[in-house]
Amino acid sequence: MSDSGPERAKSTNVGVLKAMMQFLRPYYWQMIGASIALVCTAAITLSIGQGLRMLVDQGFSSNATEAALNQALLLFTAMILLLAVGTFTRFYLVSWIGERVSADLRKAVFAHVVHLHPGYFETNLSGEIQSRITTDTTLLQTVIGSSVSIALRNLLMFIGGVILLFITNPKLTALVMLSVPLVVVPIIVFGRRVRSLSRTSQDKIAGVGTFVGESVKNIKMVQAFNHQELDRNAFDGHVESAFRVAISRINQRAWLTTIVITLVLGAVTAMLWVGGLDVLAGKISGGELTAFIFYAVMVAASVGAISEVYGDLQRAAGATERLLELLAAENLVPSSTAPVPLPAKPKGHLEFDQVCFSYPSRPEQQAIDKLCLDIKPGSSLALVGSSGAGKSTLVDLILRFYDVQGGAIRFDGIDIRDLSLDDLRSQIAIVPQQPVLFTGSVADNIRYGKPGATMAEIEAAARKAYAHEFIERLSDGYDSFVGEGGIRLSGGQRQRVAIARAILADPTLLLLDEATSALDAESEYQVQQALELLMKGRTTIVIAHRLATVVDVDIIAVLDHGKLVDAGNHAELLQSSPLYSRWASLQFDEGSSSAEQMVTM
Ligand SMILES: Nc1ncnc2c1ncn2[C@@H]1O[C@H](COP(=O)(O)OP(=O)(O)OP(=O)(O)O)[C@@H](O)[C@H]1O
């Protein structure tokens, strides 16, 4: 991930600059304002040198009048006022642009990330992405808001200062210029190192974030297994390695600053010596030397300031690069560009036609192998099979979280790749095995199925999901806060909220993943009733782990290693499928705790 050479550094610099321009473009009025303020303040600061020259040569000479001094100081005061206004404008506008651009970048990255195919998040950890959107953009905001402003101001001072130096005294200036390469070389060398270390440093910090996120999220697991000490040690390791990288970065920067300051001040000393000799010899006036020193110090200070923020700019380039990488991440499951419209009243006919699929991380293993299934509108299908048979994979393929590699899945006769993703998913509701609730109220979570639903609709859905009663008993009813991930509700309650959400969504196609597994016998019965009501007239696919779920469905598809080995209803399969009848006999013989038995099927 670090720079592999000058070629790469060059190309990314250009890329980074180009990309930043795209984000800066909308604000060119602000940029013009900031540039004017920048030029004005630099010009005023530089003209102070000329003022000093006049003051020394005329103001303090023996024939100076008080009126002339007053006039000169009045002009000086006016310039100071102008400088103050210019500085305010520059600071305000540049910081504004910094905040605005990083806000826009944050929004752009998030907007891109939420649309990425789920497979992307298997290789890119959520904590890392989070850190990029927060830490990297914050870094960028500080850099654009202050470092860029400092760099630009000092660049102008440097250019203006050098021009005025030449005007004031070319001989001395030549001396100053000789030392420029001496200063620039270390800036480039150390700057490059700082940049690559900065990237590593940001990566390490992201690693720290990911670790914290995972431990805190699973705190009960951590404590139940007495893992606190182990985790603490592992965390210490992460933090210390981030610290070491940061320190070596700081070390490089410290060297950079030290070398630059020494060289610059050395050059100024040499110049003072040569210039002083010229004044003594009467070749130049005292005012000229004063102005010269003023400009030389200004040029030196600006080089120093630039070298100091150069490191920041390099860090920002690193951060931008990472953000751009994220922005450039390709969506492997793109929505069709010329989508086929859905019929006005979709029927919910689902066909799997010779579907082949293997996960990108395991191309050698066929997770789904030449699978054919025809699920008629309004009918129900149960997927059964041992753990790892490919049931969840099929559900993911229907939702187009992944695209099939062979064959096709058709919804109402249309290849789902030809539908717009929004259209396809608007026809589907899913009740997963582990219901996912978002931080917010119970009502918010049910409304997730249909944004904009009224309270009456939400309540009706909750009643149908047998959730109304327990929700009413919560301290704030439908407004009760469910905690992060719904932690304040029981597993069964969460499941009923998830069912209510699906009921509210009123989909054509319902995907259930053993939706009743977290319920007690009483609620299971009620939820089963609710589900039957919900399933009526809708195409339903159930991932089933227990017989109770499958005896009533129209077709049971028995999967094994991604292949469809048998299909039929319960009675038929008992006759025709050895795999199914073995499973059935295991379940009937040993009661209803069956999830483990499925594993051995
Ligand atoms: N994201 C992934 N990357 C790589 N391989 C995966 C991924 N998800 C699942 N697999 C593999 O694909 C196969 C099918 O998995 P799948 O989750 O569909 O099985 P399942 O029938 O739903 O199992 P279970 O009943 O245990 O949930 C398994 O061999 C599994 O290891």
TrEMBL record:
<dbReference type="GO" id="GO:0090374">
    <property type="term" value="P:oligopeptide export from mitochondrion"/>
</dbReference>
<dbReference type="InterPro" id="IPR003439">
    <property type="entry name" value="ABC_transporter-like_ATP-bd"/>
</dbReference>
<dbReference type="InterPro" id="IPR011527">
    <property type="entry name" value="ABC1_TM_dom"/>
</dbReference>
<dbReference type="InterPro" id="IPR039421">
    <property type="entry name" value="Type_1_exporter"/>
</dbReference>
<dbReference type="GO" id="GO:0005524">
    <property type="term" value="F:ATP binding"/>
</dbReference>
<dbReference type="GO" id="GO:0015421">
    <property type="term" value="F:ABC-type oligopeptide transporter activity"/>
</dbReference>
<keyword id="KW-0067">ATP-binding</keyword>
<feature type="transmembrane region" description="Helical">
    <location>
        <begin position="289"/>
        <end position="310"/>
    </location>
</feature>
<protein>
    <submittedName>
        <fullName>ATP-binding cassette subfamily B protein</fullName>
    </submittedName>
</protein>
<feature type="transmembrane region" description="Helical">
    <location>
        <begin position="72"/>
        <end position="93"/>
    </location>
</feature>
<dbReference type="Pfam" id="PF00664">
    <property type="entry name" value="ABC_membrane"/>
</dbReference>
<keyword id="KW-0547">Nucleotide-binding</keyword>
<dbReference type="GO" id="GO:0016887">
    <property type="term" value="F:ATP hydrolysis activity"/>
</dbReference>
<keyword id="KW-1133">Transmembrane helix</keyword>
<feature type="transmembrane region" description="Helical">
    <location>
        <begin position="174"/>
        <end position="191"/>
    </location>
</feature>
<keyword id="KW-0812">Transmembrane</keyword>
<dbReference type="Pfam" id="PF00005">
    <property type="entry name" value="ABC_tran"/>
</dbReference>
<dbReference type="InterPro" id="IPR003593">
    <property type="entry name" value="AAA+_ATPase"/>
</dbReference>
<feature type="transmembrane region" description="Helical">
    <location>
        <begin position="254"/>
        <end position="277"/>
    </location>
</feature>
<dbReference type="InterPro" id="IPR036640">
    <property type="entry name" value="ABC1_TM_sf"/>
</dbReference>
<dbReference type="InterPro" id="IPR011918">
    <property type="entry name" value="ABC_MsbA_ATP-bd"/>
</dbReference>
<dbReference type="GO" id="GO:0005886">
    <property type="term" value="C:plasma membrane"/>
</dbReference>
<dbReference type="InterPro" id="IPR017871">
    <property type="entry name" value="ABC_transporter-like_CS"/>
</dbReference>
<feature type="transmembrane region" description="Helical">
    <location>
        <begin position="150"/>
        <end position="168"/>
    </location>
</feature>
<dbReference type="InterPro" id="IPR027417">
    <property type="entry name" value="P-loop_NTPase"/>
</dbReference>
<feature type="domain" description="ABC transporter">
    <location>
        <begin position="350"/>
        <end position="586"/>
    </location>
</feature>
<keyword id="KW-0472">Membrane</keyword>
<feature type="domain" description="ABC transmembrane type-1">
    <location>
        <begin position="32"/>
        <end position="315"/>
    </location>
</feature>
<feature type="transmembrane region" description="Helical">
    <location>
        <begin position="27"/>
        <end position="52"/>
    </location>
</feature>
